[in-house]
Fold this sequence. Notes:
- Strand 1 (9-18) and strand 2 form a beta hairpin.
- 16% of the residues lie in helices and 36% in strands.
- The protein is α+β, with helices and mostly antiparallel strands.
- It folds into four domains: 9-65, CATH 2.40.50.140; 76-138, CATH 2.40.50.140; 148-214, CATH 2.40.50.140; 219-285, Arc Repressor Mutant, subunit A (Orthogonal Bundle), CATH 1.10.10.10.
- The longest helix is centred in the C-terminal third of the chain and has 18 residues, at 219-236.
Amino acid sequence: MCALQAGKVFTLNVEREAPFGFYLSDGEDDVLLHHSEIPKGHDITIEEQQTVFLYTDHEGRLAATLTIPKLAIDQYDWLDVVETHRRYGAFVSIGTKKDVLVSKDDLPEDIELWPNKGDRLYCQLEVDKKGRLFAKRATFDVIQEQAIEATAENFNQNVQGTVYHLLSEGTAIFTDEGFMGFNHETERQGVLRLGQRIEGRIIEVKADGTVNLSLKKRAHEAMDTDAEKLLSYLQNRGGAMPYWDKSGPDIIQRQFKMSKAAFKRALGRLMKQGTVYQEEGWTYLKQQEKQD
């Protein structure tokens, strides 16, 4: 049985040169180091040793590269998604020229929840029965082994993290600090996808050190954003809009995608600042003449 295996790092002897590269050997089996896998300026000498990472090429043959990836077989790391393919799954980068596949069987059934290019998945490298490399997403238990417990001092802190699992009523998130977090669907706007980067705040620290996260802005932060939205809308309409604090909630939601309460808070802030005023069902920017 060949001792050389894809997904591992070996130090091999340079046996001979070929038109398309060099053959390396462990004394029993040979593997090709193609010229394209030799960095510019790196000299190769016959009978010397080279440390290489082994992978399977596009024809399923064992090959070598001098580029050592960020992880090897049975190691875990966050891998960047470089491409998704509806038929196969998501391809992730391990730092070599050839990306590896996370099978669609290891991804959500709904393709809309698949990671996008630039998202991250916590994976390990494995080899299938044909000796081909693929990436396998970490289980809950593996994530738990990497986690640290949050304390009461972390309450209300802002955190960033990555979605690592999708649940029926929410999303499991691993924060950059190492906390295992849960975001209930009521504590966010919209849907989160696997591998997505998020920013939120800790709204509860549980007894086991895990945390609940909210991706909604704090009231004053949301008010600032909503006020900017109304101000921009007014400016784009020439300084007047046919909405005021007595407009119906359905109209407000349809036009501004915010609740009536949020609309009134934002409008109230602009009025308090002296930026706008209301009259006969309309809201106007100061210095703007009333429309007929």
